[in-house]
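Thread: quick sanity check before group meeting

JM: Hey all, I'm pulling together slides for Thursday and realized we never actually wrote out the predicted structure for the chain we discussed last week. Dropping the sequence here so it's in one place. If anyone has concerns about the input, flag it before I start.
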Amino acid sequence: AKLAEEAVPLARQSGNIGLAAGALRTLASVRLSQKRFDEATALLDEAARFDARAGSTLDQIATLGWQGQVLEAQGKNDEALEKYKSAVALLENIRASGGGEKFGETKSTAKAYERLVLLLIKMNRGEEAFDYMSRARSKQLQESLRLTSLKTNDKNVQALLDRASTLATQLQTTRSQLQSEQAKPAPEQDAK
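JM (edit): ok, ran it. Output follows.
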């Protein structure tokens, strides 16, 4: 905490707004872990202003993610959801404008989707969560959000997740069998 506190004024003095925004996000993350939400919010608001001036979309995405986490920690899930959705929208805009096929493959960009999907599940909005999960190109995210690893305290939602996991496994098995069968010469294929 002490190093993060010392870094903010030094970063501000440097005149490098990207560096200052990063230091502010770091200190905000410390304040979040200390449950000092008002301070974290103020730091992140300042970081967002620096991000906008610098024009760094990736930094804007990072700041939106932290803002969402602060709001979520305070139980302000609807507001957190909007921050997460804004971060994902920025990611998808980068992809759509030719940001590269591998753009969504990084750990930091996967986090935007992960936070959004997990909050949607927590809010019992499974269908919307699955939509965002399918839009995520990151294999890392898709692995971390496998149906078998998703857990919720809501018994009804958990039953749906368990059922969806079972169906996904059955579908994968059927696809594998179909591919195997289609790879055989026509006379050897199962006629069932």
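AS: nice. The mean pLDDT is 83. The longest helix spans residues 155-183.
JM: adding both to the slides.
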